[in-house]
Design goal:
- This protein is of the alpha/beta class.
- It folds into three domains: 184 residues, 3-Layer(bba) Sandwich (FAD/NAD(P)-binding domain); 112 residues, FAD/NAD(P)-binding domain, CATH 3.50.50.60; 107 residues, FAD/NAD-linked reductase, C-terminal dimerisation domain (Enolase-like, domain 1).
- It is 31% helix and 25% strand.
- The chain contains 16 helices and 22 strands.
- Helix 3 packs antiparallel against helix 4.
- It is globular.
């Protein structure tokens, strides 16, 4: 299929026809383009900021670059004969320089070149829907491009940080996740507001780089969407590292006085810091993309079916954060592969069996097996349902808990290795509904759990998946032994 170029009435406006138009060039949008181009569909990708998106410049890549030295040092300190070599502070300048490298110095030349290498057409500018299958792009040079999609428009615009409604907050210039991952120097004192993934990862990173960190959590503990012991172990480690973790505490006001942040809490405390990070939630970037022109509410999450097509539409898709199924890059990329396959199939007139949960066009894992790793020290990793979630869903389940101290490989990995594992077993079907690991390096274990949960592997069959000795993965044997009793 070829593109058709034509000039609109306005001399600054051009129009082009494509098979697929993707709004948003983050990893998720890039994956949609990759799949549709592989199927032979002409594809345009529109991006108002940097190709590569939030993950490449302000989330996954820079945050993990900040965290890796902290975790590596913590691991080394637990190894006899090595700990004396890593007693000094991290070299903050080198860590920040490497972070800049991993974020490509906030330049997207490489990402744009990759899109062009697969045959996608990149449009830089702000894209908005202008009725069915029509996208208007306002380019930085003042030009306007009208893109028309034969088959699909895909919304892959991601999400943004949400700030609380506190008077005068704009004047304080608070950090969100973007400032926390791209800061050019280490703040002497940092207040972190929130108890989720961004909060605990950034508290871990900046504390390791030398900041005095205070974490304020409105709820009862950290990582509230994981098993309770995950947040407890991470809070314990943060406290041991020198952070001040306060639960049941909300910020009531924030000001900046002579360059110093002053935060007052509902517990009557007055805290001073150089910077304050609010990691208090996300909102969809759908407020200014023309949803109203196709009968949808601007600024909302977009509900989709399992082929990622927006409910009630024949041509509009939403992938990644925009549909609110799972605000995780890897899960968004999975959705992108599903959406790309579904778009290509429909464009070719191939029937899609929507009743097939394991088909190439069904986002099954969005419901059954969403994995996540929190890169703190210790790491926390989970997939599927927690015990509480499984019980709320009406499953008859049993939780099996095992300490990693029972595994020889854990003791070899780190002196005094501390951690815990839980598997949630469906007693009626004898399959796993969820698995959680907390401990050093457990992020590398979670894919085995994801396979077990997504594949609904019977517990009896898991006995025949023999873990190598002596590795940390022997935790699987201990969990099965504990379940059998």
């Amino acid at each position: 299929m070829t593109d058709t170029e034509h000039t609109e009435n306005d001399e600054n406006t051009t129009g082009t026809m494509y098979d697929v138009v993707v709004l948003g060039a983050g990893p998720v949008g890039e994956n949609v383009a990759d799949r549709t181009r592989a199927a032979g569909l002409s594809t345009a990708v529109v991006e108002s900021e940097l190709a590569g998106g939030e993950c490449s410049y302000w989330a996954c890549m820079p945050s993990k670059a900040l965290l890796r030295p902290a975790i590596a040092r913590a691991d080394a300190r637990r190894v006899p004969g090595l700990r004396h070599l890593v007693e000094g502070p991290l070299n903050a300048a080198e860590v920040l320089a490497h972070r800049d490298y991993e974020a490509a110095d906030w330049k997207d030349d490489g990402q744009v070149a990759w899109l062009e290498s697969i045959g996608a057409v990149f449009h830089r500018g702000h894209g908005r829907l202008a009725g069915p299958r029509r996208v208007v792009v306002d380019a930085p040079d003042g030009g306007r491009h009208v893109l028309t999609a034969r088959h699909a428009v895909v919304v892959s615009t991601g999400s943004r940080a949400v700030l609380p409604d506190l008077p005068g907050l704009d004047e304080v210039r608070p950090w969100t996740s973007r400032e926390a991952t791209s800061a050019k120097q280490v703040p002497g004192r940092l207040i972190v507001v929130g108890g989720g993934v961004v909060a605990v990862e950034m508290a871990t990173a900046w504390r390791a780089l030398g900041s005095e960190v205070t974490v304020l959590v409105r709820g009862k503990g950290l990582l509230p969407r994981m098993e309770p012991f995950a947040g407890e172990l991470v809070a314990e480690a943060l406290t041991e590292a020198g952070a001040d973790v306060r639960t049941g505490t909300s910020v009531t006001s924030v000001t900046r006085e002579n360059g110093t942040v002053v935060a007052l809490t509902d517990t009557g405390d007055r805290l001073e810091a150089d910077e304050i990070l609010f990691a208090t939630g996300r909102a969809p970037r759908t407020d200014d993309i023309g949803l109203d022109t196709v009968g949808l509410e601007p600024g909302t999450w977009l509900p989709v079916d399992d082929s990622l097509r927006v409910t009630g539409s024949e041509w509009l898709y939403a992938v990644g954060d925009a549909n609110h199924r799972a605000l995780l890059t890897h899960q968004g990329k999975y959705q992108a592969r599903i959406a790309g396959a579904a778009i290509a199939a429909r464009a070719a007139g191939v029937p899609i069996l929507e009743s097939d949960p394991w088909g190439a066009h069904a986002a099954t894992a969005d419901h059954r097996a969403v994995p996540q790793v929190v890169f703190t020290d210790p790491e926390a990793a989970s997939v599927g349902l927690s015990l509480a979630e499984a019980e709320r869903a009406g499953h008859r389940v049993r939780a099996v808990d095992v300490e990693f101290s029972s595994v020889a490989g854990a003791g070899l990995y780190a002196d005094g290795y501390r951690g815990r594992a839980r598997m949630v077993v469906d007693l009626d079907r004898e399959i796993l509904r969820g698995v959680t690991f907390v401990g050093p390096a457990v992020g590398e274990l979670i894919h085995s759990a994801t396979i077990a949960v997504a594949g609904e592997v019977p517990v009896d069959r898991l006995w025949h998946a023999v873990p190598s000795y002596p590795t940390i993965s022997e935790i699987w044997l201990r969990l099965l032994e504990a379940y059998r009793g």
